[in-house]
Design goal:
By secondary structure, this protein is mainly alpha-helical. It has helices at 3-27, 38-66, 69-90, 103-122, 129-136, 138-158, 172-201, 204-225, 231-258, 261-268, 273-279, 283-295, 302-316, 321-332, 343-346, 354-360, 363-371, 381-386, 407-422, 433-442, 450-464, 474-480. The longest helix has 30 residues, at 172-201.
């Protein structure tokens, strides 16, 4: 099974299994069991509403705090679902003497169409004019569509015969068919966006949104083509409950771990691929890097910058999401072993002796041993261990060469060197970017993988207009990333 098929299989199952179940139930009438209880229906629908309103409440609080249009859109979609499903439950014939009415069948369309427009809006670019307006006035933006929905539902609950509630309007069924198809068409791109982000960071909230959108499509299909009061119709309630239940649980669970529930959704709709990767960092990883940064002032910020550049190089090389995730995590942890280096050497203000340099060079092995204890960090181990290998075999700790060095480590090596050259050190100012790039290019094929160097050149040219300056010195690039000190004698690495 190819990697692409393996990655797509869970999503395919989410979309295909509900459709297959509906077809099976309609093809086998004996299996499509008939059952209806007004109060059980009310309980199920109320549970859907509660889950939707939990997510809506968190989204609304986040929107006010962060002024992110994407979170406002999510809040709008979930609030409409919650309000409409409350009305759907209370309009059920038989609940508190309620008689037959058309609104009990209209309100689910309002819920599902509202959700689809909310999720689709959340996936649009922040630069769009409507999103800029929404970001400036989040509460007003939420109120404009939600308050009319609340007024409509309140009216229907008070008297379900009002607003043409006694009989369907002309062509109403056709209109709802069009709305259902439109909602499904809006949700498919949303599924694609969050599925990609899930593969980047393995953030459970991204997966929950994929599941919720998929279940919404399944719910609309079952509601449209199932038979009222039979299993094929009840399915739509189960799909909506499962989708919103998982989303509410995922947001609360991850927010609880991060101790900032409203901060979860602020990250979820960030379109920056690196943000999606970083949002999935295990807490063990973040804690370890914080410990290293406390011990080594130079590492502060270096790990995150190296990780971002490494991801950008991986994207330029068109690496798949799974490999980008490994690169991000390995780059973030690449200097983890420095936590085991004596302070007297790590933070020595002057030059290092060759013996002290040898101690510094043990940090890849130390980092490997520390990270090996955490199962969630195992995919980063090859990068931690081999980010100081050289393409010609002159690196350490294993002296690997060429393609024996893991690809992810080769990418991180170049990103590490770039940040080392362009960052301030205790003994020198940041190097001019053109000169830094020239040094790295000089080491292409000897110190660094030529494919990764080419990716760096293309990325810097396209994103920042940086080009190779004068002729560089490969050893300058190599030594920049080895430590943050000068040494009394440079060891030969040829």
């Amino acid at each position: 099974m190819t990697s692409l098929v393996r990655r797509s299989l869970p999503l395919t199952c989410m979309l295909v299994i509900p459709l297959a179940l509906l077809i099976l139930l309609r093809a086998l009438p004996d299996a499509d069991i008939m059952f209806f209880s007004a109060y059980i229906h009310l309980v199920v629908v109320s549970a859907i509403a509660v889950c939707a309103l939990v997510v809506a409440g968190i989204a609304s609080a986040t929107a006010v705090r962060t002024r992110k249009a994407s979170v406002v859109w999510l809040g709008i979609g979930c609030l409409i679902v919650g309000v409409a499903m409350v009305g759907h439950g209370l309009a059920t014939p038989g609940v508190w003497g309620r008689g037959p009415n058309v609104w009990v069948g209209r309100l689910p369309y309002l819920a599902m169409v509202g959700l689809s427009f909310g999720l689709a809006g959340a996936s649009t670019a922040p630069s769009r004019r409507i999103n800029q307006l929404i970001a400036r006035r989040p509460l007003a933006a939420i109120s404009v569509p939600v308050l009319p929905a609340v007024a409509l539902v309140a009216t229907v609950i008070l008297d379900s015969d009002l607003l043409w509630g006694t009989a369907p309007l002309a062509h109403e069924e056709v209109a709802f068919d069009v709305l259902a198809v439109t909602a499904g068409a809006l949700l498919l791109p949303v599924i694609g966006v969050h599925w990609r982000r899930w593969h980047l960071g393995h953030d459970v909230v991204q997966l929950a949104l994929v599941f919720a959108a998929s279940m919404s499509i399944a719910a609309m299909t079952s509601f449209e083509h199932g038979v009222f009061a039979q299993l094929s119709w009840w399915d739509y309630h189960a799909y909506l409950l499962a989708g919103f239940g998982m989303t509410a649980f995922a947001v609360l669970a991850r927010g609880s771990r991060a101790q900032a529930v409203t901060g979860v959704l602020a990250e979820t709709f960030d379109d920056d691929p690196f943000a999606a990767l970083a949002s999935g960092y295990p807490e063990a990883m973040k804690s370890m890097v914080r410990a290293v940064e406390i011990k080594d002032a130079y590492t502060h910020g270096h790990s995150a910058r190296t990780a971002r550049m490494a991801v950008e190089l991986g994207q330029r090389m068109q690496l798949p999401p799974d490999r980008l995730r490994i690169i991000a995590r390995g780059a973030y942890l690449h200097d983890l072993g420095k936590i085991g280096i004596p302070d007297g050497i790590l933070n020595k203000p002057g030059r290092l002796t060759p013996e002290e340099r040898a101690v510094i060079e043990t940090h890849p092995q130390l980092g490997y041993e520390i990270a090996s204890a955490a199962r969630s960090l195992r995919e980063a181990l090859p990068i931690i261990l081999h980010h100081h290998e050289r393409f010609d075999g002159g690196g350490y700790p294993a002296g690997l060469s060429g393609f024996d060095v893991p690809l992810e480590a080769r990418v991180v090596t170049v990103a590490d060197v770039w940040d080392a050259l362009t960052s301030r050190r205790a003994y020198r100012d940041p190097m001019d970017p053109e000169a830094a790039l020239a040094h790295i290019v000089a080491g292409s094929g000897t110190h660094f993988d030529p494919v990764v160097v080419d990716a760096l050149v293309a990325h810097l040219r396209d994103s920042e207009g940086i080009t190779v300056g004068s002729e560089g010195i490969a050893e300058e690039a190599w030594e920049a990333a080895q430590n943050c000190h000068e040494v009394d004698r440079e060891p030969a690495r040829v």
